[in-house]
Design a protein that fits this description.
Order of helices and strands: HHHHHHHHHHHHHHH
Shape: flat
CATH superfamily of the largest domain: UbiA prenyltransferase
Number of strands: 0
CATH topology of the largest domain: Tetracycline Repressor, domain 2
Helix content: 55-70%
Number of domains: 2
Distance between the termini: 47 Å
CATH architecture of the largest domain: Orthogonal Bundle
Structural class: mainly alpha
Number of helices: 15
Radius of gyration: 20 Å
Length: 317
């Protein structure tokens, strides 16, 4: 695939107004994505080496949630054309005509601006700046530029979802520390194998919509090799906090086991039986398993950081 995908100006045609309810407005916030982002942001705040008033902590976490939802709504507004072409997204509120595109855009911008302003008032300028940067990166860099122009969209765009640990830490301390930066790097290198595993079995959807995901542009075999490569890189980065004595034995043991499991999943994806065109003979079961394990991986890794904070001393050098 070459060139940029051309956007139509209108919402998905031929679908009558169906009415709007609260569930549609919630769906615009991408609640599944929000859950993961809020979780990693809350862990970043909790492991900070200074006490935080519970009300301030709650407001900071709320701001991260609102910002994630606002960015998600803007993403759905911009991607309404390709969402209408993909089976797994065609039922979203904008392509189905249940929410007008302009209303969704105003909703997303309003939530985004409100979240940054509230973060600034409730915590500090550093946390608010990081929150604003994460919104702009997701909307401008990933959604409006990278997603439709390069198969490296997930690699570079992964930074958008990696900001929350830094935001949470900054909300507590007013600074950016080494540990949250390493957690940022962990999420950054986790994102490509996570999404490429998904894209292996959702390849037809992306191809139909003209989105240059790696399997569409370079093929399944190349994608499988890249999944293994980035999983190896993830292993090295994820163990860095323990190697630098920023975390304790709970994190070290947990992450070592998680890395071994993810590497095994990536190896099975690489060795999956293939047809000459690189497609899977097993209905991409190894890729589906790798995708599910990647969700468990990130959740357990952040729980391990939190457990170290509760149960053992951590050096915050």
């Amino acid at each position: 695939m070459s060139g940029r995908l051309v956007r139509p100006d209108a919402v998905h045609p031929g679908i009558a107004e169906l009415g709007t309810d609260l569930r549609d407005w919630i769906a615009l916030l991408k609640p599944r994505v929000m859950t993961l982002v809020v979780f990693t942001g809350a862990i970043g705040l909790f492991i900070a080496p200074v006490p935080v008033h519970p009300l301030v902590a709650a407001i900071a976490i709320l701001c991260i949630a609102i910002a994630t939802g606002g960015a998600g709504a803007i993403n759905m507004w911009y991607d309404r054309d390709i969402d209408a072409l993909m089976r797994r997204t065609a039922g979203r509120p904008i392509p189905c005509g249940r929410i007008p595109a302009g209303d969704a855009l105003a909703y997303g911008i309003g939530l985004s601006v409100f979240s940054v302003a509230l973060m600034w008032l409730a915590t500090n300028a550093v946390a608010a700046a990081m929150l604003g940067l994460s919104i702009l990166f997701y909307v401008l860099i990933y959604t409006m530029w990278l997603k439709r122009s390069t198969p490296q969209n997930i690699v570079i765009g992964g930074a958008a979802g990696a900001f929350p640990p830094i935001i949470g830490w900054a909300a507590a301390t007013g600074q950016i520390g080494l540990l949250p930066v390493l957690l940022f790097a962990t999420v950054f290198f986790w994102t490509p194998p996570h999404f490429w595993a998904l894209s292996l079995y959702a390849c037809k959807d992306y191809g139909d919509a003209g989105v240059p995901m790696l399997p569409v542009v370079r093929g399944a075999r190349h994608t499988r090799r890249q999944i293994l490569l980035y999983t190896v890189l993830l292993t090295l980065v994820s163990l860095a906090p323990a190697a630098l004595h920023l975390t304790g034995w709970i994190y070290l043991v947990s992450t070592a086991l998680l890395d071994a499991g993810f590497l095994a999943c990536a190896w099975r994806v690489l060795r999956d039986r293939q047809l000459p065109d690189g497609t899977s003979l097993t209905d991409d079961r190894p890729a589906r398993q790798a995708f599910r394990f990647s969700l468990l991986y990130l959740a357990v890794l952040f729980v391990a950081v939190c457990a170290d904070r509760l149960l053992g001393p951590i050096s915050f050098g």
